[in-house]
Amino acid sequence: MRRFERAPDARVRLVCLPHAGGSASFFFPLAKALAPEVEVLAVQYPGRQDRRHEPPVGSIGGLAAEILAVLRPFGDRPLALFGHSMGALIGYEIALRMSDAGLPAPVHLFASGRRAPSRYRDDDVRGASDERLVSELRKLGGSDAAMLADPELLAMILPAIRSDYRAVESYRHEPGRRLACPVTAFTGDRDPRVSVDEARAWAEHTTGPADLHVLPGGHFFLVDQAAPMVATMTEKLAGAALSRP
Description:
6 strands, globular, 6-stranded parallel β-sheet, 9 helices, alpha/beta
């Protein structure tokens, strides 16, 4: 867990889960924007940055289980979950595991830039050549162009990215399972990986309220659309904090 901005008086914590190939530092601006009302915890997956020498975890369920174990000491305050792309699936699986473990449900799940768990495509990027994988990263945006042009840096980061794609593309949800918490989905109106209907289908995965926010942009719409997303999350989490003792 990475905590960029301490917020000792915050009534709720938001656990942020990065996209495929992403790292905890991606959420540094969000932590600044939400403090002091919300304390942000950002997850650093193994296999990248300061954890680059650790082997990646090759499945969504495996990552969710490991993250839940680390989250237990933070349960003294209500927890919400925010995941972008691959992180949205991990957030969904963490929420299911919280229920299975008899823990309080998350007060909210924010799912950004990802199809609902029951919506699949045959993307088949995990087995692609390095050249095609880099081309995919360029198409989606969100990766530093200079980094993608540096052979030494690519050699360091591509194994983790390929492992992440393998985890996402092999993921299958468990039919019949539904969350009990509110779910808010965000999507870009020009995201090549997520249609509006696929994002709207997140509502099928909870018995709680669900809503969808369609914002201008592609897969990494959240970089340019941070302000409306922060406003929505602030409003939702304020209400959640008030509803919990």
